[in-house]
């Protein structure tokens, strides 16, 4: 498997009720098509060979004989095909009839999985025909082969051992404790579900939630293949609504009454393994389960699934707005608690006219509103110096007036010049001392004003800056509570944009939009012709690309090679491969070398699944080496 991706498919044939020959022809056609698409696992709906809606015909020996003959034909055809297949049929055993999923690979019956929970309510009357699965596993002889029979079977590739799947059938998913729960704990990373769920109003939405949540609860890939066209409509209608999910996300689906007979995508087994290792409450329990090994090389040479270039930001505008409102609420409530606990009278914020300080001020205003405090007790301090432009300074003033907070302007130029004279630094030497001297002076001013006002300094730095170490140690790096510490830069932009969308005055909306349109800059170098001379993304790289790396490195544990593989797909037509690699080197070098700044971060609320708090999700030695990560990036360059 390339980087853990395994191609899988849900097949939805057009069935002919009780005509096993016609159904076999459909099945063989889709088996071949899935093979040519490179699928490693193909799942067909419940009772595929006969059709689900045969009623009392399931008690006819003739139909049951034809079903076994059809399975023999399918088994023979699979010899020249590479995937593992899961097909459904009614099967006689020891005087009982079972609703069975037959798992087969290259002419071998790997196992027979009977349905555990037989519905007999509403429109379902399966108990009329079928017996629930017996406890435990056993063996039976079928088509000249000795075959494992039972619900506690795992099917695993002996070549790619992470490719391991289990099977449950339709109603098995809908019960309180599904067989897939035990199968997942026993090691299955993929669950195949053969289903024949009819369609009723609202059921499609419920099905999406159920399948996606089951994949999340079990940290697995879930293939749900549902019966569709051709099933009897005597009393119910079948839509063929099928889904492929991964850890709570829908990767692919055939919409109800869709036309596609095959949905194909890739499940990231490496990502699922990482997530299970990360969650120590996901405890493995293999007792009572048997593993059936077979030689399948689950190679995925092409990636068809969508790779999100902005993993922190929902693409759907409605979901994005909902996410932004929720994050602002969390930030504000986090700050509210800290303000009340410390009994501080005021909040003090350095306002630059840039994105981060704007977001911090908006959050602080919301926290004060929650407490019922006067916004005039928020002291915004703008501290122009050598790099400040008229645009950012003006925006800072307009913003504070629009929000109704107290604004103080303190030009720190004289103080910094005195400091340079004290330490013997040449003003014309615009090195890191020139820049950081200004940043530290601003922090000193804020801290001292907070002492004067019985206040708290609110930090403005964001997650992306912390990951890259793009902060002056004991300068803007330090505060008394950092409200933006777990917000990546791309999300900061959308939060400010959301606030502009819901702004209660046109003045506030316009200034927020202009702040969004201003290049990101610390403004520590003198402007050129009145314009910002120091653009952050020219120095450290595009924040959009860095946020992609942050998410996939920290949240998913991906290697540099896999990050590059995914970035090439996500940013195709946006960034060239050489460009991506050049900034990847910067990311890994800075991420490792700047950990010491993150080891002593101020408190701040976690709002997403990624944070760099040394007290929470990220604990890393400050002297860890980046050598092996950089070596892998250099190998990619070669």
Give the biggest sheet.
7 strands, mixed
Radius of gyration: 30 Å
User: Which spans of ≥5 residues are poorly predicted at pLDDT below 50?
Assistant: none
Task: Give the overall average pLDDT.
Answer: 95
Question: Architecture of the largest domain in CATH?
Answer: 3-Layer(aba) Sandwich
Beta fraction: 15-25%
Structural class: alpha/beta
CATH topology-level fold name of the largest domain = Rossmann fold
**What percent of residues adopt helix (DSSP H or I)?**
25-40%
Strand order of the largest sheet: 13-12-11-10-9-8-15
- Strand segment count: 20
Q: What is the first-to-last residue Cα distance?
A: 22 Å
What's the domain count? 2
Descriptive account of the structure:
The chain is of the alpha/beta class and 638 residues long. It has 2 domains: 5-294, Nitrilase/N-carbamoyl-D-aminoacid amidohydrolase, CATH 3.60.110; 317-637, HUPs (Rossmann fold), CATH 3.40.50.620. 39% of the residues lie in helices and 18% in strands. It contains 19 helices and 20 strands. It has helices at residues 20-36, 61-77, 179-185, 203-217, 269-278, 317-342, 355-371, 390-403, 413-423, 432-452, 463-468, 489-501, 506-516, 536-540, 543-555, 560-570, 577-593, 595-598, 627-637; strands at residues 5-11, 41-43, 84-93, 96-105, 108-114, 138-142, 145-149, 153-157, 164-169, 190-195, 221-226, 242-246, 249-254, 262-268, 290-294, 346-350, 378-382, 406-409, 455-459, 481-482. The strands form 4 sheets. A 7-stranded mixed sheet has the order 13-12-11-10-9-8-15, with helices on one face. The radius of gyration is 30 Å and the shape is elongated.
